[in-house]
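Lab notebook, bench 4. The sequencing result for the construct came back, and we need a structural model before the next group meeting so we can plan mutations. Quick request posted to the team channel:

Model the 3D structure of this chain.
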Amino acid sequence: MSVVPEEILALLDRATEADVAPSVNLARPTLEDLSSTRYSLALSSPTDAKLRHIPFVSLSFEQQEGEVASRVSAGIPDVDSDLGPLWELCTMGTPLWLLAGQSTLVEMFRGTIMEVGDRTTNGASFGIVAYDGLHNALRSKYDLIFGPDTTLTEVIRAYAAKATIELGYIEEPGVKLGVLTMRQDTMIDGLTKALNRVAVLGGGSLKLRAVQGKLECIRPASNPVIYHFRTGGVAVNTTIKGSISDLINTVQVVATVPGSDEDDENAQVQVIKTLSSDAGFTGAQEMVYSAEADSHEAARLEAESILAEKGFPTWTYSHTGFAVPGVYKWERVHITDGIVDNHFIVAGLSMDLVGRTMQMSLTTTEEIARKTRQTALEAALADLKQTSASTGTASTGTTAGATLLKQIAKPVMGLAYVAGGAAGRTDFSKDMHHVGTDCSGFVSWMTRQLGGTTGTTTDAIAQASALIQTNGTDQAMPGDYILYWDGGASQTGMAYPHVAMWLGGGQVLESGGSVKPSSIGIGSLLNGYSRYEVRRNDAVFKKVNATPTKTSSKKA
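Done. Here's the predicted structure in token form:
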């Protein structure tokens, strides 16, 4: 049910009441109707759920480039009304709507007042800032794990369920994202990670936006043209700026000549690949060293990423015209006003709803395609480096670290598991052979042998270590703790009923756990727990995973 503007216009000088919330659909006006478009703020009373409509001095609606949440700012005269001072109505946490239309006012924005300020006297004006419901959700942190057949839609729905937010239109790219682990990631970082994976897998560019308090994921420019801004119509001003001052024309991939010492500053190098921009301009040259990039493939990806980012002129477009309430970020518009006749994508917009003007930051489909390629290259490079690091660790550091751990544990291997055993509780070098120990006693004893300190219970070990990842071991290093969590449901009452020390290759050192008979030995990851965590003691990590210092082979 909608709110008719006459209810507001008749009492424009004071706050007024209405019985119902605004409509959830925005009726897009025609260009001829823009001059009669009316705007109003409506506040929801916490006492009776009625809407309070209030006048305003200034009002803006913004969807900025690089942000997902929308924002409304208003300057309001603090006058007495039948409902009391407006200051008392515009309190932090109050739900707010922005309404627009001609014969019928409908919803443009829904959110919550987050900031109130600049009030000095009862007769003074004051300002409010309201954000939509995504503002807090996007900066909240969550732990989420997705399997190999996960789709983008499933990721977005999982976050929406966690944050209790509404979803609008979600465009599914139709690719399987593979295993995704979001550990302590904010919602926006987790969604960005998923969108980057989409780009790597060829799913194209997808963007997030907020519309009427709902999160949407759309493909820019996939929608039809909404408005045609043209000279003699609503066009006011279009600005185009271009620059090639930072343009990179070529990138050379350089490698050390085989047989020469790469640590020697005079080492011979050779160009193994040259990549050039096809933008048609002369620009600077950059070099990527294969040795610093870890591999030829990583160097190639880095070179291509540089060209994708800097290998083309920088163009910025903006357009100022009458405020059109039907335009949202990432929609397509057609602009014809003498200096340009082209279709653009709205990358950001700011509406002055009192002055009835709107400024749009614009981009092109070509620019979006280039940024999509750059994102895909950067994500592929990050994946390659992570894979290389894991492979290198498994072949060198992991083997050496696991060997060291086994050597330290060798004197106590096979000793019986004893719940609450004395060993490890008071003296880490005495009584263990005679009494035995439990899981936390063994791990704390191992920690002491490696120069670290920690508590002697599983919960204390968890509190004294840093979380690395949850329900996965791809980032685990020898000596890291594997702590199983059940929130205190076990008989011990501990949140973490068991702890082991990671060796690598799916193996752990532990007292009890999977070792049969229950004793100190080499075991494997346990099933039956809703969560296990990889946690790290810094002193143990440095001791177990120290890499030998590389010595130079140069002759004196």
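The chain has eleven helices and 28 strands.
Will bring this to the meeting.
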